[in-house]
Automatic annotation (TrEMBL):
Lineage summary: Bacteria, Bacillati, Bacillota, Bacilli, Bacillales
Protein name per Swiss-Prot or TrEMBL: BK channel
Gene Ontology cellular-component annotations: plasma membrane
UniProt keyword annotations, A-Z: Ion channel, Ion transport, Membrane, Transmembrane, Transmembrane helix, Transport
Protein's membrane topology: Multi-pass membrane protein
Domain named Ion transport: residues: 21-105
Residue ranges of every copy of the RCK N-terminal domain listed in the record: 118-246
Segments passing through the bilayer: 21-37, 73-95
């Protein structure tokens, strides 16, 4: 009855910092007082502090305990009631804090603090596959999903994080730590059947991202999914780095497969890290002066030089020098890539 009344009175105060401070003060005061009351039982302040801590946490090893009447009375009236009560309240606050943190994280209300991550705008069927592929390719990368329609994080994977909000708002972009991101991938929403409206929304997000980068002086690599390739010019004016037109690409791939058999299989291997060879990016080696040097050296290692960034026509310029900051794309398996990089 007394404990219940005490808890009800204390619970009216809603400041967890006060309770924590009171608990710390109570523990040290009790340790000091028990040392004064029973100097023979508690021969040092550390021993008295040890007894108070094991008591208020209800561990109770029993290796030391009060032996005098005064000490036992203080233990029963103060340590057992007040100390254990305060400790229970503080532990309850700690548990509540973890639950609140977890709930906010699941609902996408917390800011992402790490760096070098991929930002996925809009969680769709296609973006889900992209996330799986990115996680499979990069063991050290994390994903941040921005979506204003999701109620909670769509995955239990610890490497996937969620930010709830409008991706065309600066607050949401800052919450995803866009300044420190590796790249931003914008996907067209699944629920829009009108390609012009979907591309218009994607363009708005891309323009906001590029505008924020110019305003706050940072660069971000942006890739946009475009449903109608007639809208590419608009995205080029918005300084979007790359464009992907899934429907047109799939239609053209089917035509290529019909004309040149096995073309789809080659494309499947090159676009998936789970099958056959894959596309990798490497830096120019110091002893590579021309594209021919790189081509021959890579060929001997079991890799094929595919392109320099967006420039695919390497075969026509084998004798030309390779720019120092080139990002060369090669085709090989994982083992060969690990040996080359």
């Amino acid at each position: 009855m007394i404990i219940r009344m005490l808890i009800q009175r204390v619970s009216r105060i809603q400041n967890r910092h006060i309770y924590s401070a009171l608990l710390v003060l109570f523990i040290f005061f009790s340790a000091y007082l028990m040392r004064l009351i029973e100097p023979e039982t508690f021969d040092s302040y550390f021993n008295s502090l040890w007894w108070v801590m094991t008591t208020v946490t209800t561990v109770g090893y029993g290796d030391v305990s009060p032996t005098t009447t005064a000490g036992q009375i203080y233990a029963m009236t103060a340590v057992y009631i007040v100390g254990i009560g305060l400790m229970g309240l503080v532990i309850g606050y700690i548990v509540d804090a973890f639950q609140v943190y977890r709930k906010k994280k699941e609902e996408g209300k917390l800011a992402y603090k790490s760096e070098g991550h991929y930002i996925i705008v809009n969680y769709t069927k296609r973006s889900k596959e992209t996330i799986e592929e990115l996680l499979h390719i990069h063991d050290d990368k994390e994903i941040v999903i921005i979506d204003e329609d999701l109620d909670k994080k769509p995955s239990t994977d610890d490497r996937i994080h969620f930010v709830s909000g409008n991706p065309a708002e600066h607050r949401t972009l800052h919450q995803s730590n866009i300044k420190k991101s590796h790249a931003v991938l914008i996907f067209a929403p699944d629920n829009m059947k009108n390609y012009s409206l979907a591309d218009g929304q994607t363009l708005l997000i891309a323009t906001t991202i590029e505008g924020l980068g110019k305003e706050e002086n940072f660069e971000v690599y942006t890739i946009a999914e475009i449903l109608n390739d007639q809208h590419i010019n608009a995205f080029q004016h918005a300084d979007v780095d790359e464009f992907v037109t899934p429907y047109h690409m799939s239609a053209r791939l089917i035509a290529k497969s019909a004309s040149y058999r096995s073309a789809s299989e080659v494309f499947r291997q090159l676009t998936s890290s789970r099958y056959g060879n894959d596309i990798y990016s490497i830096r120019k080696k110091k002893h590579w002066k021309t594209y021919r040097d790189a081509y021959q050296d890579l060929l001997e290692s079991g890799a094929t030089l595919l392109a320099n960034g967006k420039e695919v026509g390497i075969a026509k310029k084998l004798n030309e020098p390779i720019p120092e900051q080139s990002e060369l794309l090669i085709v090989c398996d994982q083992e060969t890539y690990e040996a080359i990089k």
